[in-house]
Amino acid sequence: MNEAEKSLNFIEHIIEDDLANGFTKDQLRFRFPPEPNGYLHMGHASSICLNFGLGNRYNAPVNLRFDDTNPAKEEQEYVDAIKKDVSWLGFQWDKECYASDYFQQLYDWAVVLIKEGKAYVDSQTAEAIATQKGTPTSVGINSPFRDRAITENIRLFEEMKAGKHESGTHVLRAKIDMSAPNMLMRDPIIYRILHKTHHRTQNDWCIYPMYDWTHGESDYLEQVSHSFCTLEFAMHRELYDWFLDQLIDPSLVRPKQREFARRNFSHTVVSKRKLMQLVEQGVVSGWDDPRMPTISGLRRRGYTPESIVAFAKTIGIAKRENVVDVSLLDFTLREHLNRVAPRVMGVLNPLKLVITNYPEGQEELLVAENNQEDESAGTREVPFSKHLFIEQEDFKEEGNRKFFRLKLGGEVRLKNGYIIKAESCTKDPNGNITEVQCTYDPLSKSGSGTEESLRKVKGTLHWVSQKHALKAKVRLYDRLFTDPTPDGHKDKDFMDFINSNSLEEITAYVEPSLASAQEGDRFQFQRMGYFVVDKDSSSSQLVFNKTTGLRDTWSKLDAS
Ligand code: ATP
Ligand code: MG
Q1: Whose CA is closest to 386, among 358, 352, 351, 418?
Q2: Does any ligand 1 atom lie closer than 6 A to the CB of residue 83?
Q3: Computed over its alpha carbons, how large is the radius of gyration of the chain?
Q4: Distance between CA atoms of 228 and 262, rounded to whole angstroms?
Q5: Residue 382: pLDDT above 80?
Q6: pLDDT score at 343
Q7: Are the CB atoms for 132 and 173 separated by under 8 Å?
Q8: From 230, 240, 308, 323, mutation site for ligand 1 pocket: most ligand atoms within 8 A of C-beta
Q9: What is the average per-residue pLDDT within 534-547?
């Protein structure tokens, strides 16, 4: 085996085998098939990267197919959000397809099945049909309608389509085998009556095809060569193939269903039903709440598409389900942000600092590098004055030898500026420190070339000038769930593990260069972490969401 072959995953091996056995490259076509009944999440990102990644690897088209066969749960809002998310991740689909575009073709094929004696209208209740299905260890019972005359089946099916029957009164079933070992082959339902308006076909239809009948036939219509789905569909493959056997034109590409493991992530849930519950019960502010594991939530939290794609590639595709630690995504994210995020200064918990020997009313502009990892990012100017804010945690009256920040009698450098020495401090009646008084060394200015400017002191602090700083609202997040596997407990519901303190809003002071920051702009607040401008920002109020810390504080917390 050569190096290139070793790096192939099992899905790529399937394709390579097909290519080796006569399948031609120009016949390859893939699809990503979301159901528009919710927003995409991190699990979908894996499937997107798999399918579009194959498209890139083999230079083959990838369709974006909306599996919109259930009007009860699907909406245009979700279609729009899904398109936005796939594009944002950096992928381009070949065709935008909808299963609903195939409703007429699917109906026509169903009529063919009926005419060939391979489908029948069953007029029993859902309960009766379920009971007759049998169990994995006992065979099913034939429906009393199984041998209904073909003409009668056609008449009833047409009436169902024409809206002459109530929801739930009849279904169309494939006539396969009520004693099949695979229960899905026991005369599966392929159509149901549903008097509901569909977000695309409006009231054209009141019968809707079931997933199994729709999916493979849609793949076939689009000439998708490889149809990848998650493991729970492994048992459905037999049915997928049975349906194709009934219709296939052997001169066309026969789609192949193969399965891979659904991705689960620690400290969160990725089921649309559960995410919907969080939205509907107001636990979060919406599908794009920055605490949500949705693509739109991650975007609003400041994650980069590059980091999500890199993460999906790193974890790859598996044959068996397991839980992936989300801190791996944070690691990938930090690595990317470190390279691309401009550095700025922002003080989250302000403490007043006055430089007693700096002239009142004097101001100057200090030059600051935008990103020491990237020289092309250039520099900017930051205003400095006598009255500053520093971070509360950066000053202590007394600190031990390991406290390299500011303490009485000690020295630190103000980032991009001067060396200061803490001389005294003021306290309120409760003993809280309200101001630190310092002196500065006028010759120590960074970059000025003097001997003093090169003098090394142990600590460097970020700061903002009180007069020039902008007030900003900053949202700090903790994990949404207190348990590493919130939906992995038999005796408890995932909602039992909601962290009631997952959001904190504070007022921070940031340097004035941020006045021109736009929604989605990402920054490193030096020493404090990565932050992104939120859509709630306005001209009068900047709002930042904290993306992540500079280091992996989670794993430290978990270990303690
Ligand atoms: P959910 O359980 O979140 O509702 P779903 O499978 O019903 O997920 P779809 O919209 O049908 O959601 O999914 C579109 C595609 O994404 C499918 O091919 C599905 O298998 C895949 N997918 C969904 N969730 C995951 C996941 N956690 N890991 C990998 N692939 C996933
Ligand atoms: Mg689904």
Answers
A1: 358
A2: no
A3: 31
A4: 11
A5: yes
A6: 97
A7: no
A8: 230
A9: 96
On average, the pLDDT of the chain sits at 95
Is 301 within 8 Å of 547 (Cβ atoms)?
A: yes
Residues 433-457, mean pLDDT to the nearest whole number:
95
Instruction: Answer whether 0.85 is exceeded by the pTM.
Output: yes
Place of tokens 């107001």: 282
Pairing of strands 406-407, 395-396: parallel
| Token pair of 478 as six digits | 């903790």
CA 123, distance to chain mean position in Å, is: 43
Dihedral angle, C-alpha 171, 175, 176, 182, nearest 10 ° = 10
| 307/330 Cα distance (integer angstroms) | 8
| Sign of the dihedral defined by the CA atoms of residues 119, 120, 123, 129, in that order | negative
* Marked catalytic residue, from 118, 146, 196, 262: 262
The answer on pLDDT for 555 being more than 70 is no
Q: Which residues pair with 509 in a beta bridge?
A: 347, 471
The answer for residues whose C-beta is within 8 angstroms of residue 121's C-beta and 6 or more apart is 145, 148, 152, 153, 156, 157, 160, 170, 171, 172, 173
DSSP string, 340-379: HPPEE-EESSEEEEEETTSPTT-EEEEEEES-TT-GGG-E
Element (H, E) at 390: strand 387-391
16 exposure class (CB count in 10 Å sphere: 0-12, 13-18, 19+): middle
List pLDDT tens digits, range 463-492.
999 999 999 999 999 999 999 999 999 999
Question: What is the rounded distance in angstroms from the CA atom of residue 262 to the CA atom of residue 317?
Answer: 9
The pLDDT of 409-416, averaged and rounded, is 97
Supply angle C-alpha 69, 74, 80, rounded to 5.
115
Q: Which of 32, 40, 47, 82 to mutate to test the pocket of ligand 1 (most atoms within 8 A of CB)?
A: 47
Number of other residues whose CB lies within 10 A of the CB of residue 238: 15
Residue 560 has pLDDT above 50, yes or no: no
Among 506, 535, 48, 38, CA closest to 302: 535
| Cα–Cα distance measured from residue 146 to residue 256, given in angstroms and rounded to the nearest whole number | 30
User: In the 8-state DSSP scheme, what is residue 180?
Assistant: -
Q: Residue 11 pLDDT more than 80?
A: yes
Which pLDDT belongs to residue 6? 55
What are the tens digits of pLDDT across the range 71-118?
999 899 999 999 999 999 999 999 999 999 999 999 999 999 999 999
Q: Please confirm, yes or no, whether 262 is among the known catalytic residues.
A: yes
Mean pLDDT to the nearest integer, 389-415:
95
Give me 531's structure tokens. Answer: 């932050």
Q: Kindly give the distance from the C-alpha atom of residue 264 to the centroid of ligand 1, in angstroms, as a whole number.
A: 11
In tens, the pLDDT along 212-226 reads: 999 999 999 999 999
Backbone φ, ψ for residue 6 (5° rounding): -60, -35
**All domains of the chain, ordered by start, with CATH?**
25-260 (3.40.50.620), 272-342+472-559 (2.40.240.10), 350-462 (2.40.240.10)
Is the per-residue pLDDT at 62 higher than 80?
Answer: yes
User: In the prediction, which pLDDT does 554 show?
Assistant: 53
